[in-house]
Design a protein that fits this description.
single chain, alpha+beta, two-stranded antiparallel ribbon
């Protein structure tokens, strides 16, 4: 049941299978990432985010006013 539900959600929401790199490469690259729960509850269109982190860029500083999506972005990167 769980696998079928995930497959149905993936088809309905246009999810794609991630490409997993070896941990030794130390790379996180997300193109058009979408937080799965936030995308469902937002009233307006959800804007996908890109993330690129590697050994040269290990820290990202995310700034902005309150309720601008900083926490959503951080959770999205952790979840994906």
């Amino acid at each position: 049941d769980c696998i079928i539900s995930l497959a149905v959600c993936a088809a309905d929401l246009n999810y794609v299978k991630p490409e997993m790199l070896p941990a030794e490469e130390g790379v996180i690259y997300i193109e058009n990432g979408r937080h799965p729960l936030q995308e469902l509850i937002v009233d307006d269109e959800f804007i996908p985010n890109d993330t690129s982190m590697d050994d040269g860029d290990r820290v990202i500083v995310v700034t902005g006013p309150n309720f601008s999506g900083k926490s959503c972005y951080a959770r999205q990167v952790g979840l994906l």
